[in-house]
Amino acid sequence: MMAVIRRYIDEVQQAEEVLNNGYLRAFQKIGQYNFQGSFEGWLRKIVFHAVSDYVKQNIKYNEKVILVEKDQYVEKDHADNLYYNQLLKLVQMLPDATRMVFNMYVMEGFSHKEISKMLGISEGTSKWHLSEGRRVLKERIEKLQLHYNL
Questions:
Q1: Distance between CA 115 and CA 76 in Å, rounded?
Q2: For residues 108 and 70, what is the distance between their CA atoms, to the nearest angstrom?
Q3: In the chain, which stretches have pLDDT less than 50?
Q4: Cα–Cα dist 123/114, whole Å
Q5: d(CA 2, CA 15)
Q6: What is the pLDDT of residues 96-116, one digit of tens each?
Q7: Which of 10, 42, 48, 90 has its CA 20 to 30 A from that of 18?
Q8: CA distance 72 to 42
Q9: Which of left, alpha, beta for 124 (phi over 0: left; psi -120 to 50: alpha)?
Q10: 83-104 b/e with 16+ CB inside 10 Å = b?
Q11: Could you tell me the pTM of the whole model?
Q12: What is the phi/psi pair of residue 92, to 5°?
């Protein structure tokens, strides 16, 4: 569960606090688990809601909706040479609001409509954060100059 939380919160102490809150909620709601589906999936959902609540309380969304051009793809050879941990570090370097939306959309598979409801932002703002996150990650990956040396 800590890995799920660390995608959104890079400070260890804050992540531990959210993890504890998530587990507390799980213990409080254990009677609601009806043994349908995996326990891990049920627990992951509760922990994710703890992350969502933490972010709502601690991150201010002051950005305006900005129209941007459609995302461009990163050169395949750049992305292929990235290790998971390197990519995770790049994602963690994104601004908090952008990182949250990026992770919810890309890693967790939430729609912009779901993200907007959970975070209390507009769908347009959610789309902007995703686009901005992709743009910034693309720039940072290309700066790493990870070309194959033949």
A1: 28
A2: 22
A3: 60-81, 147-150
A4: 9
A5: 7
A6: 889 989 988 888 888 999 888
A7: 90
A8: 36
A9: alpha
A10: eeeeebebbeebeebbbbbbbb
A11: 0.53
A12: -65, -20
